[in-house]
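Possible regression after last week's pipeline update?

I re-ran a chain I had predicted before the update to compare outputs. Posting the input and the new output here so someone can diff against the archived version. Not blocking, just want to make sure nothing changed silently.
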Amino acid sequence: MAFTASAETIPLPDLAFTRVWGPAIHRLILTARRSATEGEHMLTVRPNSGRV
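New output (post-update):
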C-alpha cells in the first residue's frame, strides 16, 4: 500500500450545516509512505458494506 490513512472528525457548530450534515464531518487523510517525483495513484471510494 502506497499510503497510510487516518481520519479526522471536524465538529460543525453552524446550525445551517448540522441540519443537513449532522453534528460533524470526517476528513480522510492519506499520507504517502515514500515520496516520489513521478507516477500516479487512483482512489476508489465505495459504500461501507456494514463492516467496521
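Follow-up from reviewer: compared with the archived run. The chain has one domain: 1-52. Marking as no regression found.
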